[in-house]
Amino acid sequence: MTWTASRCVAWSPFFPETGTRSSMKSTPTEFLRPARAEDVPALMALRTEAESWLGSKGTDQWSDPETGAKAMAKWRASIDEGRAWVVEGGTGAILATVSRGPVDRDFWRDVDHPESALYLYKLIVSRSAAGRRLGERIVDWTSRLAAMEGRDWVRIDTWRTNAGLHSYYERLGFAHVRTEAPAHRLSGWLAQRPAHVLSLPGALLTVGQPASNRCQQGAVPSPR
After folding, report:
1. How many CA atoms lie within 13 A of 123 on its CB side?
2. pLDDT at res. 25
3. What are the counts of helices (DSSP H) followed by strands (DSSP E) for the chain?
4. How many C-beta atoms surround the C-beta of residue 174 within 10 A?
5. What end-to-end distance do the CA atoms of the chain give, in Å?
6. Which of 31, 146, 131, 11 is nearest to 85 (CA)?
7. What values do phi and psi take at 70, rounded to 5?
8. CA-CA distance, 158 to 104, in Å (whole number)?
9. Rounded CA gap, 199 and 165, in Å?
10. CA-CA distance, 14 to 160, in Å (whole number)?
11. What are the helix (H) ranges across 81-220?
12. Among 204, 24, 52, which residue's Cα sits nearest to residue 126?
């Protein structure tokens, strides 16, 4: 990651394209950073909380036994490879996580031009951050990253039976591509959104440090 000088734009509770006030409760102290090995317990706590919440909504997502050593091993590998990120709040608490990963060949084919997309995985937001629209802002960050890399799409695969999650992503501008159902997988609802699309362009997450500190330094991070 390198730093380049830039004019700092102050955070605003208004959407610039409409002039209307955002309903978010978030503050400019939230920021993205690469996940670290010591974050694994907090990441597992996020997943356990998400499992319980999903169960209360009547979906069987993540009801599989992948909540112990196997899940931890996967997260450690993602961290070691620089693919896992967290959103940290002003108090240092981890509010959300997201990972990017290689194309999943159980789902995406050569005809999909796999190299044309960034693949988003493991997006989880703490229930304590509900109402801050962190999920949308994280997806926007992946869209910006995809565009910087010259990619056309952000792609996801989600639990096939979680209709509520499908609707959520469709509201963010994702289009259903198709549903794959390999016998050994429970995910497979495939969708994509053009990399240039942003849901909340007036509330972009900063990377590496809070926006207020960045303004003082007059720099913005540019991943390379």
Report:
1. 22
2. 47
3. 5, 10
4. 23
5. 6
6. 31
7. -65, -45
8. 12
9. 16
10. 36
11. 134-148, 163-171, 211-217
12. 52
- Closest C-alpha among 109, 93, 111, 196 to residue 157: 109
Report the distance separating Cα 23 and Cα 14, nearest Å: 9
Per-residue pLDDT tens over the stretch 78-130: 999 999 999 999 889 999 999 999 999 999 999 999 999 999 999 999 988 88
> Residue 104: what residue type?
D
Token pair of 214 as six digits: 């960045």
Question: What would the two tokens of residue 110 be?
Answer: 């050569």
How many other C-beta atoms can be found within 10 angstroms of the C-beta atom of residue 82? 11
**Residue 188: C-alpha distances to residues 66, 108, 125, 134 (Å):** 17, 10, 21, 24
- CA-nearest of 153, 96, 87 to 120 is 153
Please tell me the total number of residues recorded for the chain in this structure. Answer: 224
